[in-house]
Q: What sequence folds into this?
């Protein structure tokens, strides 16, 4: 039940992030979560959006380098220690995490963690066995 | 197998030597009589026209360089009365002050015949539509291939350079079959054709790409992307223009039109001739030109000559791809670096041939940076993967060059495209 994240290559130059997000905003694409990884020379912008396929096509047509990556959206209670609990389960099972980023929502008092791991299916099974809820794409897009 | 001038292209070694000797002897005598500048150089060396009877005597003659052309600018090396010359062409001036070359009508005919040989060797005939997007004007690329295409009897599309949209439109509408331009512009055209989704609307079967050094990997890349066979062509304005040598179907080097241009290889440092098969600087003597018959002109291009039997049947001596210039070679931290080596590594690692090399000097130490464009295929969402790719590229470059460059991945299309000669090297060092 992985969902699609789009990743965008961002050259280190003033205004690039503004350009990219404006392209999406103008096309009416809503962003659910955003994170950026930066190196000395460039950044990787990661987005969870309402229409990942459309966002990818749009950005590529504007000359951006974009990839689509399946990630897991884990639903958590917005309480101290809940993220640690989930990470411990994965750590004990030897699943290493490439990166993660989190967001909370106003409505439900819940938080979501976007997880990028090597093997989504395996991580999902490990979490599900321990009663951790994985949100499906529709649920995230509908927030 | 088709040839444009079978008798010369397939001549026996003995016949070719006889033609060369007769033409060389006559040209040396004429230059000595008509060009005071060259006569002074010959006198200084103590050589008389009677001393040069065959190509084996060439070493006795003085070498000419671009510097001589600048000194004698503009008319000092003209070997016919000005009234007999009908055309001026000029070099791009990328390596300094422009130099000019002159042609009589017969010189133009011979030059165009040389280009016609190249077009026929690339499979061209009267049935073809030859799309020429080399620049027209002072630059020899456009006029040379244009004239060659006329000689073959092909339908010629004189697009000149620029306006890529229109180039692609005309190429599709008129079903161009042979494309003539620089390899870097061909790469740009290929990219635009694929982007516009009109790859299935082009009818190209061959490309004749020259005026720049390009790698074997770039050839394969252009062949795949455009669905063509890509042929190298070589020439320089000082000697005539494109068509001094050209590639055949074997694609293992360029046949030199040696009935017009005798090639030698010399040591670029000492100027001494090197034995056959050595890598060194290419030197040409023009033996059939009237207006501008340069003798022993140093091209600064580094290559190897080969007389190995060619499957195409031509007996014309072959020159290898130019592996560098004896003057644009970069020396970085004491190591010789040719941009073509960097290109080879980039393409073999799956990167596009869109790159720039930036050399600088920081704290008295040379730095070299290779900027290369990121592609959809090479991009990854994890920084770890990207760092690994950069690392792999750095080590591939290090093993090719012997020094470790910095690699910077940049956004697509952020490196300026060129419609003529690509600017591959930016050297910021001040010496």
A:
């Amino acid at each position: 039940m992985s969902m699609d994240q789009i990743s965008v290559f961002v050259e280190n130059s003033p205004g690039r992030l503004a350009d990219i997000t404006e392209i999406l905003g103008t096309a009416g694409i809503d962003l659910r979560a955003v994170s950026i990884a930066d190196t000395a020379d460039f950044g990787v912008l990661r987005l969870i959006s309402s229409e990942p396929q459309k966002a990818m096509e749009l950005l590529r047509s504007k000359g951006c380098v974009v990839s689509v990556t399946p990630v897991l959206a884990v639903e958590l209670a917005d309480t101290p220690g809940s993220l640690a609990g989930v990470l411990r389960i994965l750590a004990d099972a030897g699943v290493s995490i490439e990166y993660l980023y989190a967001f909370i929502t106003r409505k439900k008092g819940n938080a979501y963690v976007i997880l990028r791991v090597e093997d989504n299916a395996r991580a999902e099974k490990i979490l599900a066995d321990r009663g951790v809820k994985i949100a499906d794409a529709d649920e995230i897009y509908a927030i | 197998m088709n040839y444009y001038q079978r008798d010369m292209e397939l001549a026996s070694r003995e016949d070719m030597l006889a033609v060369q000797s007769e033409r060389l002897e006559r040209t040396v005598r004429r230059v000595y009589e008509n060009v005071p500048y060259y006569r002074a150089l010959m006198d200084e060396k103590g050589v008389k026209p009677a001393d040069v009877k065959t190509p084996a005597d060439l070493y006795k003659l003085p070498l000419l360089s671009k510097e001589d052309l600048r000194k004698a600018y503009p008319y000092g090396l003209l070997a016919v009365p000005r009234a007999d010359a009908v055309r001026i062409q000029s070099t791009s001036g990328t390596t300094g002050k422009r130099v000019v070359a002159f042609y009589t009508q017969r010189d133009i005919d011979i030059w165009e015949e040389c280009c016609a040989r190249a077009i026929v060797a690339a499979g061209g005939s009267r049935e073809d539509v030859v799309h020429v997007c080399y620049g027209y004007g002072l630059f020899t690329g456009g006029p040379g291939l244009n004239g060659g295409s006329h000689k073959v009897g092909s339908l010629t599309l004189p697009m000149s350079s620029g306006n890529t949209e229109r180039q692609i439109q005309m190429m599709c509408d008129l079903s161009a079959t042979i494309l003539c331009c620089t390899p870097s512009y061909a790469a740009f055209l290929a990219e635009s054709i694929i982007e516009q989704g009109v790859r299935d609307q082009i009818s190209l079967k061959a490309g004749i790409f020259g005026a720049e050094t390009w790698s074997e990997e770039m050839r394969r890349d252009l062949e795949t992307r455009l669905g063509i066979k890509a042929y190298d062509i070589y020439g320089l304005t000082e000697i005539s223009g494109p068509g001094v040598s050209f590639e055949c179907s074997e694609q293992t080097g360029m046949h030199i039109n040696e009935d017009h241009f005798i090639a030698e290889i010399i040591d670029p440092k000492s100027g001494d001739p090197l034995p056959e098969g050595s890598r060194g600087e290419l030197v040409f003597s023009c033996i059939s030109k009237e207006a501008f018959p340069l003798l022993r002109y140093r091209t600064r291009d580094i290559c190897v000559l080969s007389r190995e039997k060619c499957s195409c049947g031509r007996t014309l001596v072959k020159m290898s791809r130019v592996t560098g210039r004896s003057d644009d070679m970069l020396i970085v931290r004491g190591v010789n670096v040719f941009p073509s080596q960097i290109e080879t590594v980039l393409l073999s690692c799956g990167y596009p041939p869109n790159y720039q090399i930036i050399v600088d000097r920081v704290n008295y130490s040379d730095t070299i940076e290779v900027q290369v464009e990121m592609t959809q295929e090479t991009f990854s969402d994890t920084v770890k993967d990207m760092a690994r790719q950069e690392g792999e590229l750095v080590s591939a470059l290090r093993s090719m060059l012997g020094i470790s460059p910095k690699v910077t991945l940049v956004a697509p299309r952020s490196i300026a495209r060129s419609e003529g000669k690509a600017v591959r090297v930016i050297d910021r060092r001040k010496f």
The mean pLDDT of chain A is 90.
